[in-house]
UniProtKB/TrEMBL annotation, chain A:
One of its GO terms (cellular component) is plasma membrane. GO terms for biological process: transmembrane transport. Its main location: membrane. It comes from Streptomyces microflavus (Streptomyces lipmanii). Signal peptide: none annotated. SUPFAM superfamilies: MetI-like (SSF161098). The keyword Cell membrane applies. It comes from the Bacteria. InterPro entries: MetI-like, MetI-like_sf. Residues 65-253 form the ABC transmembrane type-1 domain. This is Phosphonate ABC transporter permease. The lineage of its organism: Bacteria, Bacillati, Actinomycetota, Actinomycetes, Kitasatosporales.
Amino acid sequence: MLVHSRTGKWATWSAFALLFVPLFAVPLLVILAASFSTNWSGALPSGPTATRYTAATSGDSLQALTTSLVTALCASVLALVLGGWAALAASSLGRRGKRFLDALFMLPVAVPSVVVGLAVLVAFSRPPVLLNGTRWIVIIAHTVLVTAFAYQSVSAAARRLDPMYEQAAASLGASPARVLWRVRLPLLLPSLTAAAGLCFALSMGELSATMMLYPPDWTPLPVQIFAATDRGSLFTGAALAVVLMGTTLLVLTAVSRIRTRASYR
Amino acid sequence: MADTTAPSTTAPTSTTTPGRRKAVSLTRTPTWAWALPPVLVLALGFLYPLALVVRQSFTPESLEDGGASLTPYTEVFASTVFREALTTTVWLAVGATVGCLVLGFVLALVIAFVPFPGGKAVARFIDVFLSFPSFLITLALLFIYGSVGMANGAWTGVTGAAEGPFHFLTTPWGVLLAEITYFTPFVMRPLLAAFSQLDTAQLEVASSLGAGPVRIVRQVILPEALPALAAGGSLVLVLCLNEFGIVLFTGAKGVTTLPMLVYSKAILESDYPAACVVAVVNIALSVGLYSLYRVVSRRAGA
């Protein structure tokens, strides 16, 4: 539409490909290719192998994967309850109350995640709450970090919700709890599942805060990837990274299926 | 909205939100009380820890119980490591933001206005890209431009030289490249949303009146895109200031940013007061910019 001539169009498209492919597609492909190779010191990888994956799906690495999955699941459920509740409560408040809650719940996005990690470490390494060295400290930090995204997603959807439905239900004598459970939450289901997927993906890839406070017996996958690359075994790191990306994508696809089923109901 | 005739029990339907909502939540508990539990949980898990960080930053190890002192601040501000980290962080963030804005604008422009088959797939790919952690980019760059990576390997293979020409990965430029790659999609998403609302008739009219593509971009598209650019750019600026994974994975001793300094002070040196001082500075910088972002994106009508 902007460029009308045939040659102009092709020139634009090839410029686009020249920028897009090396910057965005190549990195992911390189990780994928590296995870299947034994050696890569020329233009192309050499020695196709799948041994990295047997290593990446057993022992410590398998434990790291389950650790990541459990952490991400706990953090996203907690964040969804916390953020969703706050967003629903905010939607029935006045303008100033809503602004206050917005600012409060979006604050963790602005604060660097390393600092969130440091803060949680400082706070829960001393009485009254001693959690240092347990898995809970990791889960708390992840929950704090992803709650903002759950809040943002649910509050945006709650704002778009047509109030007619609730009013109709209430006028027919439904109690507020029933209106919430039978009208508002089902209508918000697509955004809730989207928020769950987002929170899960973010928590799966969280490294900054985790580096500050993971206990030795609770190392999530990103920390494991860093440990592998830090000691020089880049190819193991690549295989672990592919496992991480694959798991995240799998969960995201599953979650988006729930969403489509809900929105066609 | 104003003509809603839903029979409500008490309050007549008004155009303001609170009045409309009150008709629904008819309980003895006031509405604000429902907001208390999540706020309390957040306060316990986030605000209380932050407050402790601020308190710790005023408590040097010599006076562990009680008593505030500015010693940690004067010590940290006087150190060259901190000053270098501050300048590195700021120029890296600004550079990456400018790079993301230019690149993101060009790429979004092509996807939206010079459509090609597979453009939808590219837009989807960008969404997927956003859900991956940032350090994967550095990991990939290590394979491509690392000292034993494919670019250097190809070079030594062709020329027979002892080592390849690419050594920028452990310098700030490597971090800059990784940040631009990772954060460009954050600019493209709001831009694509803004472009999809732009009426193409405007472009047709401008074009039929004789404006060339460059002029259309400058005088029609760019003004429409400015709010989205401002919002996306300030978000990327904040995210770059806070970025840690990318810097950690390059493993460069020469590149120290503020989050990296927090990590090394706290975990490697166990100097918590100093780490907290750096953290407070980083919070001030990021939260200040983030508030600006909120104002800008609200103005932009997001």
